[in-house]
Every structure is written in C-alpha cells, then in structure tokens.
C-alpha cells in the first residue's frame, strides 16, 4: 500500500500537524520521564499497527540511549524484568487506554491505582494526554498508510519550530 496523503504537503494538513505537535509540547515538557513517555508511545503504536510511529518511537528511544533489550521487550513488558514498577503502570495505562474497544470498562481500577501510586496529578494528566495524543497520531498514520523506516531522531522537535 502506498501512502495516501502527505499531510505536510497539504495546506490544511500542515496547519493541523503543526498545532498537533505544539499541543504535544505540554506533555513532553512535563515531569514524566522522557523514556516513560516514549515507552508509552511505542506500546500504543505497536498495538495500533502504526509502522511510522513504531519506527519513530523506537528510534527516539535508541537515540536517547535506551538499551536495545528495553526497546525490544516493550511489546512483552509484562513478561520482562527490565521495566520499573512506574513504567509498568504507565504501560498498563497505555494498553488499556488504547484497547478501549476490547475492554468495556476502559482503564481498570487496578491499573488506575498503580498509576496513582507512582505519579502525581500533573504527571497523570500528562500520561492520559500522552495516551490520547499517540492514539490520534496512530490513527492518522494508519489511515494515511504512512510507512515506517524513514524517521530520523529529532524530527518531532523540528516539527514544532
């Protein structure tokens, strides 16, 4: 499948993409560790089958110095020993917040309690917004058939300039 539309080459699409990227700045500037933010982005992108986003967040993690073992085990984080309890809580929130159609109750009380244990209200707001934003980005990527492989670390930062 070929990409359907290049948002950045379309006047309205470019305006939307820039505003979308700027809205994400609130999240990236939060006190949630950058690695946790990228792990959340990667896991949601894997679930949603977004090749472009999976490529981007894998490369951002690697560029930030994350060990390959952590990046490679994100998809199976429950069966891995390389993630902290706080990261596991964030990954559970990402999964349950992404799989809304699979779980009629949305995010479980157990997951919410785990998140509350490790993050303050501002960090929780950032994580909830992160899950919402990455799911929106994934939907854009999947609908438009954006392919993984061409992302270069730092492209997100340049998009908000």
From TrEMBL:
<dbReference type="InterPro" id="IPR029032">
    <property type="entry name" value="AhpD-like"/>
</dbReference>
<dbReference type="InterPro" id="IPR003779">
    <property type="entry name" value="CMD-like"/>
</dbReference>
<feature type="domain" description="Carboxymuconolactone decarboxylase-like">
    <location>
        <begin position="17"/>
        <end position="96"/>
    </location>
</feature>
<dbReference type="GO" id="GO:0051920">
    <property type="term" value="F:peroxiredoxin activity"/>
</dbReference>
<dbReference type="Pfam" id="PF02627">
    <property type="entry name" value="CMD"/>
</dbReference>
<dbReference type="InterPro" id="IPR004675">
    <property type="entry name" value="AhpD_core"/>
</dbReference>
<protein>
    <submittedName>
        <fullName>Carboxymuconolactone decarboxylase family protein</fullName>
    </submittedName>
</protein>
